[in-house]
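Forgive a beginner's question, but would it be possible to get a protein, spelled out as residues, together with the matching structure tokens, please?
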Amino acid sequence: QRQMCIRDRIRYAQGLGMQRRYVNESFKDPEYTLHRRKLFRSLYIADRLCAIHLGRSLTINDVEWDDKNSLNQFNDLQNEMLKVCLLNGKILTKVYHNPAIGMKNALKLAVELKIFTVNSSISKSLSLQNTLKYNDNHGLLWLHINHLDGIILLARPFFFFIILIKLKFIKFDEESKNYSNLKNFYQSCIKASLLTIKLIEFYFVNNLHPLKGYTIISCSFHAGLIIGMILLLQSQNIDDNLFDSKANVNGGENSKVVCISAMNSTISVLRHYGAIDPTSKRYGEILSNMMDATKVQQQTYQEFANRQKEQQQQQETGAVVP
């Protein structure tokens, strides 16, 4: 129903020519022209978010909207969100809408994401020290989790391909050049998932509970599914270290503990929203079932208990405890 309402509004806006530069510039009142442009920008963002998080088709074609650069002079969260949605829309069309998922297009999009992150103010706005207002914090969360979800969206097909290789369902030459690219996408997907979960967790810990939105629920679920697959590998004693030495972001903690903590946080957030949203409640149940199926939690606690027991025995015998 939400998607149908957005589509109707987009069709009305297109009928009024809001996507065309020459139509917008034909009005004498600059405030009215600015209003038209901002309104269509909001519709474009909503269209991309619905396509990514609800699995709907894209309604607005990028080629038709020739007035998208008219608001570049405004350095606000909405404009940064537009840039994120433009990139995420490219990922959908060039990676997922193609008959075959190609490494060449994915690498080009990865470079575009990297350039956007470096040049944009998105990396500087993550600090919440200077933004004490609730709405500003919610806008920052909305911006960053969609940016991270774009990284997950791009890297996810290659992540699952690596998972199949590690589980030995398919064979692949690990000495090939493409394997190093696959591994980079694999690690980027894990890092983006962990950062998404930690960012949402940060808001709840600091009592900055964001408004319920399907984007937050969907991003949490996407990140949780990635962590669930890592738990599956760890339950098979595969790939205990999440990253190599140059890309380690787990702070030296055991990777199983990191993944279990992240998964528990995701389930808690989804259950929190599940009180008023059945979709979120169902997502939480799915991730909980994934976690129970891997049985990593029991294994990790058992390993920790055995380690504590060994240390206690070594202390009693006077041995040096590492």
